[in-house]
């Protein structure tokens, strides 16, 4: 059995939704921040972490999504076949893991981005992070123009985008109002029964 370690509402929600969409056999386990079990699997202390029965551990959300697609080749969540189709999937996974997700780091953890720990300095870091989030949401919004999902057909990129879109909705003073295509993607995902099931599970799950 595959185990996905997560914390409620983090980016681990993306692979969690992907596992549900794929109909995979898995269990999802809460990994409290700083817990010995989590640090033994991932010295960085971050989730998501995926572990297989034989003890093999995989970290990094993009790698986990790729691995799940290889394990579940009939999921239909892996973008178009061929070099360009696969490159498009890679492009958007890289955008999400490398551009949009990191834009939130200064918003959630401003203390890590300034040696000046005053409230004023940290508020400025948050403001700069919000600017980065907005820039990346504009890019995502443009990609979604005329499409229901990021690549056209639904893919793991949509599952992974969901936690970030939720963060943006919660953190931006005007929510997603300026990003109508992103808002439409949010509404589509929020209405999905598998997404709702995953959100409920995460909200109710307790650490072992
Ligand atoms: N590059 C990593 C980032 C993972 C990450 O930052 N996870 C956050 C939750 S969204 C976390 O667990 N952070 C804990 C920490 O940085 O201390 C990935 O894509 O998996």
From TrEMBL:
Keywords: Transferase. Transmembrane segments: none annotated. It holds the Pfam family GST_N_3. CDD domains: GST_C_Beta (cd03188), GST_N_Beta (cd03057). GO terms for molecular function: transferase activity. The keyword Transferase applies. InterPro entries: Glutathione-S-Trfase_C-like, Glutathione-S-Trfase_C_sf, Glutathione_S-Trfase, Glutathione_S-Trfase_N, GST_C, Thioredoxin-like_sf. PANTHER family: GLUTATHIONE S-TRANSFERASE GSTA, GLUTATHIONE S-TRANSFERASE-RELATED. This is Glutathione S-transferase. The lineage of its organism: Bacteria, Pseudomonadati, Pseudomonadota, Alphaproteobacteria, Rhodobacterales.
């Amino acid at each position: 059995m595959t185990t996905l370690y997560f914390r409620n509402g983090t980016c681990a929600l993306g692979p969690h939704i992907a596992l549900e969409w794929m109909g995979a056999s898995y269990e999802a386990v809460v990994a409290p921040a700083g817990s010995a079990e989590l640090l033994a699997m991932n010295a960085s202390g971050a989730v998501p972490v995926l572990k297989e029965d034989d003890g093999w551990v995989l970290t990094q959300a993009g790698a986990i999504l790729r691995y799940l697609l290889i394990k579940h080749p009939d999921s239909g969540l892996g973008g178009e076949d061929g070099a360009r189709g696969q490159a498009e999937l890679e492009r958007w996974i890289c955008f999400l893991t490398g551009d949009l997700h990191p834009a939130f780091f200064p918003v959630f953890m401003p203390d890590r981005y300034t040696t000046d720990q005053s409230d004023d300095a940290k508020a400025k870091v948050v403001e700069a992070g919000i600017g980065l989030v907005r820039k990346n949401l504009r890019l995502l919004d443009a990609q979604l123009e005329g499409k229901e999902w990021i690549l056209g057909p639904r893919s793991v990129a949509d599952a992974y985008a969901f936690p970030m879109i939720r963060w943006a909705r919660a953190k931006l003073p005007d929510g997603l109002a300026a990003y109508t295509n992103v808002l439409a993607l949010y509404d589509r995902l929020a209405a999905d029964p598998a997404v709702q099931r995953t959100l409920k599970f995460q909200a109710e799950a307790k650490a072992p």
